[in-house]
Amino acid sequence: MKKLQIIFFTALxxxxxxxxxxxxxxxxxxxxVPVAEQTIEDTPQIEEEPEEPVEExxxxxxxxxxxxxxxxxxxxxxxxxxxxxxxxxxxxxxTKTASQYGISKADVVYECNVEGSITRLMWIxxxxxxxxxxxxxxxxxxxxxxxxxxxxxxxxxxxxxxYIDEVIKRTDDIDGKTSSNFWxxxxxxxxxxxxxxxxxxxxxxxxxxxxxxxxxxxYADEQHYRFASEKEPNxxxxxxxxxxxxxxxxxxxxxxxxxxxxYNSENGLYERFQKLAGASDGPHTDLATGEQLKFKNVLIxxxxxxxxxxxxxxxxxxxxxxxxGWFFTNGKGIHVNWEKTSDYGATRYYDDAGNEIExxxxxTMVCIVEDGDSFLVDDQEIN
Length: 383
Description:
Layout: E1 2-4, H1 10-21, E2 38-40, E3 68-70, E4 77-79, H2 80-83, E5 88-93, E6 108-113, E7 119-125, E8 134-135, H3 142-149, E9 154-157, H4 165-168, E10 173-175, E11 183-184, E12 195-197, H5 199-209, E13 243-244, E14 247-249, E15 259-264, E16 269-274, E17 282-283, E18 294-295, E19 297-303, E20 305-307, E21 314-316, E22 320-329, E23 332-340, E24 348-350, E25 364-370, E26 375-377, E27 380-382
């Protein structure tokens, strides 16, 4: 604080006045009258708070259109309505007589053995509101229902053995055996694999059965798969033991389907091929579009199984902890451990250090492998 002390002397003032006025009569000198001391405070300096920088969203997080969000299932851009609606889980055969329509639009595809070493596919389809032909639809196996649970899906099938009776009561299923909204297509390959349904039929069944189309409370807040950023995709280079995986051959596990995946470095996807028993080797395609099935991520799950009866019906253990598996993406692969600890909880995958893996944006293939079976990666046997 500065102090300014100002003192004026009246005597000095009087002298100046006398000098200016000539010989005027002298006046008595007045005693000094000090001016009161004044204190002037410094004006406080106001420090301006620095403005917080506005974080601009990364370019990849800007939706291409207003109202779009990242898909819970693929991390691709979808509308909010699609992302908040229940997906379909559709049961489809995978034999030379199968006539598959719409499968190339699936976001996740599961493959697992059923009786006779043939496989059945279940595909998870998130955006299904404008489809005029889905299928062909075949019967349920109970272990598929547990995988459908974790997506909160509407389960589409055509009947099934009595083994499904208990679990099917606990899901919202659309059964072609009891629905009047399925039809038999004349252009199918045979009279068994020819049942189809469309969006209108599913919506009618949902209405008739009183099913909700919106995801159950709290489900949308849960994260199923974890995804790497598109700007920094997971190339598995952080793993010193990652293996090169240009071809994943599932023939030893699926001896009837004989499916395999070839990595295409140009599009960064695993393209699916099959050599079905009694059919020629070639791309696995959607009959509706002619498009080949392609996947960004391939997950392998080793699973305990049993043969239930002399008809060959199987049982698979869908709930387990610390079970072997593999994860393939971008032409590389690593060993993982998977776990599923509840009916409706997600199957999760961890690297050998215990960290949950990050998938890359895009479609995912899940292959269920019976314990004791093997598959080939670039001609190397994996048990």
